[in-house]
Amino acid sequence: MTTYKTDYGFIKPTHIEEEMRTSYLDYAMSVIVSRALPDVRDGLKPVQRRILYAMEELGMRPGQGYKKSARLVGEVLGKYHPHNNDSVYEAMVRMAQDFTMRLPLVDGQGNFGSVDNDPPAAMRYTEARMQAVAEEMLVNIDENTVDHIDNFDGTLREPVVLPARLPNLMINGASGIAVGMATNIPPHNPTEICNAVVHLVDHPDATVEDLLKHVQGPDFPTGGTIMGREGIRNAYSTGRGQIIVRAKAEIEPMSRSNRMQIIVSELPYQVNKAALVEKIANLTKDKRLQGISEVRDESDREGMRVVIELRTGTQPMVVLNNLYKLTPMQNSFSANMLALVEGMPRTITLKVALLSFIDFRREVVRRRAEFQLEKARQRAHILAGLRIAVSNLDEVIAIIRGAADTPSARDALMTRFSLDEPQSQAILDMQLRRISTLERERLEEEYAQIQTTIQGLEELLGDENKIMLEIKKETRALRKKFGEDRRTDISLDAHDISRAELEAHEQVVVTLSQGGYIKRIPANTYRNQHRGGKGVVSMTTREDDPVKHLLVADTHDTLLFFTNRGRVHKLTVFELRPDTSRNTRGVPVVNVVQLGANETVSAVVAVDSLDHDDTFLMLGTRNGKIKRIALSSIGNIRPSGGVLGMRLQKKGSEIGKRKLSQDDRVVGMAIILHNSDSRLLVISKKGFGKLTAVDKYRRQGRGGKGILTFDIQPRKTGPVAVAEVVDDSKELYLVSEQAQVQRTNLSEISTTIGRKASGVIIMRLASGDSVSSIACVSDLDSGTSATGKSNGKGNAEASKPAAESKNGTANAQRNGSAKAELVDADEESDEPQMSFDDMTEEDDETDSDD
């Protein structure tokens, strides 16, 4: 387009879209290159580089006095960085914070902020100087090791990059937000990075896996624990990766109390401690975090200490896992290794970062050697002229005396001894003391040394391997001087916090109605009553929906649902929504397990684990069919559809030998030891029950009718509702069809001598109600133990993990179904029994009411 001249200057017409595009790109590149991103060579942003360079010029070196921060900021602003003074001071403050940088470059005196995000004092109050490690960033800067450019107004020169003997980019990391891009490079351990540099010098073809042998992972100044290595490997191989970091916490007993407390000593990188404490307090107040009574910050100059006191009976590991899940005590560091490579932004890998540093150091060492060689040659040239003057001292003195002035003397010396102007001037500047014998000897020694130096520098410049050896030598010296042990641990455990780790162990009562409504409620909701009590309401039911199943289980137990189709579904107890009221109806069971059309739950069993190889389920139908299956064989139950546990015959099929009357039904079964001192508990429909020693029952052959065990009186006792073998159980739960729950001690039920007695009243029922199901537990305490494992685990020891309980046999004492019992293979009687393995099974999968 044509440019027009006006009274105000020249006007060039342009499209606004093009002008906006050009201007924005210029601005974006300025922010990217000149402000936000670090250079891969020295790992510094322009403002950081200018701060260190200004400190060098102001003499703010280690060992010297501190100078006001405001003076430094003014120096940087006035000479090199024409931006807001806050940007300079904030950058300087970060370089002084030991919780931000792995090796701080600035030694600050005064308030430079804290891990609680407290702001630093104003720059007029604080003072600073360089740290010793910062000198390694500036070493040899006056030896033409790096290029210099004009400052913003062209009056001064500033370095494009610092010589940086220290691999600063990977040691201190970097973070910054540019236009359309950002960088987030984690800090690392100085020793490990130096080792990796040395290894890469010797093995330039090293892979990421090779480097991982030297660099374990990021090493944050605030410590913490990195969970897993996958994020580290991704970051090092691709430049991007999610690194999960957890706080370090210990569980300790409180003094003069039986309560526990969690002590947090290290936090993930860049986590605000004060904000964390506040969040924990708010989550506790909102009841999203349970079991915490108090949280306070006891940190001091000796280190970090956040104390989280727990309530009595709280399980510490569950609370700690919830803290990891809900608060920044577990945080994700998103590594995005973006840096300027040859002036352009580029995502780099660990190897690229270290190779770029090595290449830069090779150039620095070469330029330094060239500079030093030139200086040495110049000095050798001067020394050669001085040697001539000393060897011809009388003649030199005579020439100087005879000269009219200094230029004449200089010219005469140049003519007489074939010297150049610098050599002649050096002779004229030579002090008289240099003509002494001792000074003449020192002159010869200096000349010999300078010749050796020249030879060494020439050999260095002529051999690339010697340059690389020099880099290794300097890197090892840095490692020795600044190397430290790791602060951040690395755990191989990389799994996400599971639901099981967030749920407390608690003894709960699970009820299931005939209509398929299921609910869970804490066992301590039901108070213990004496024998003959009426119980309390456990759930709201309809008249046509009586309660059929009752289980007392731990929240981490697995519920096995056996359906009328012979299928088995599973569900962890804590997956049931907890009900806070006994009067709620619960939720339809089809909402928690996927049942097919016309498929209903016939029995429910609670097991602590499905991994027991020598533990079996014994299944029985009302019509007498029995099957034994290994518990481990149904361990991989699909969430949808479950697994087939027993093939049922068509309704009305011949079942084989049985001696039950037409109106009789099997209500329970169990396996007992041959020499067992167990007792048989029998409960009638109207709440009468009795305990009888099992040795009162003689053995019968298969197909026998059995022997009488309960004196049934239709009006008084009603028929037998449930029967269960009791070993070391101490407490009994009964549920009626109208959802009344009675909790009582088994010790209140006396063991009868005769088998034919009708027992005593255990539960007083309302008119029209009847006993539906029972559950026996071996531990009266429904609380939690200090180890975090719930009590009430049947025969298992409450303080042991579920996997340590004896083959899962405890589950037989707390399941609520009379039609499915756990059997321990090691505890089967040696007497002849029915062969379950030889039983013939039908292939027909047709639905059956059996």
**CATH level 1 class label of the largest domain:** Mainly Beta
Anisotropy-based shape: elongated
- The CATH architecture designation of the largest domain is 6 Propeller
Cα end-to-end separation: 93 Å
CATH fold annotation of the largest domain: Neuraminidase
Q: How many distinct domains?
A: 4
User: Approximately what portion of the residues adopt beta-strand conformation?
Assistant: 15-25%
Q: Helicity range of the residues? A: 25-40%
Determine Rg (CA atoms, Å): 43 Å
Sheet with the most strands, sense and barrel status: 5 strands, mixed
In the CATH hierarchy, what is the superfamily of the largest domain? DNA gyrase/topoisomerase IV, subunit A, C-terminal
Number of strands: 39
The total of helices stands at 18
Task: Report the mean per-residue pLDDT as an integer.
Answer: 81
Structural class: alpha+beta
Low-pLDDT windows of residues: 780-850
List the keywords.
850 residues, alpha+beta, Topoisomerase II, domain 5, Gyrase A, domain 2, Topoisomerase, domain 3, 4 domains, five-stranded mixed sheet, four-stranded mixed sheet, 18 helices, 39 strands, 28% helix, elongated, disordered C terminus, topoisomerase, DNA-binding
Description:
The chain is an alpha+beta fold and 850 residues long. It has 4 domains: 15-191, Alpha-Beta Complex (Topoisomerase II, domain 5); 248-328, 2-Layer Sandwich (Gyrase A, domain 2), CATH 3.30.1360.40; 361-482, Topoisomerase, domain 3, CATH 1.10.268; 503-827, DNA gyrase/topoisomerase IV, subunit A, C-terminal (Neuraminidase), CATH 2.120.10.90. Helices cover 28% and strands 22% of the residues. It has 18 helices and 39 strands. Strands 31, 32, 33, 36 and 37 form a 5-stranded mixed β-sheet that branches. It has a 4-stranded mixed β-sheet with strand order 16-11-10-19. A hairpin with a 5-residue loop joins strand 28 (615-620) and strand 29. Helix 7 (190-202) runs antiparallel to helix 17 and helix 12 (350-391) crosses helix 17 (464-482). The chain is elongated and about 150 Å long. It starts with a strand and ends in a 26-residue tail after the last strand. The model is unreliable at 780-850 (pLDDT under 50). One of its GO terms (biological process) is DNA topological change. Belongs to the type II topoisomerase GyrA/ParC subunit family. Residues 838-850 have a biased composition (Acidic residues). One of its GO terms (cellular component) is cytoplasm. Residues 781-793, 806-816 have a biased composition (Polar residues).
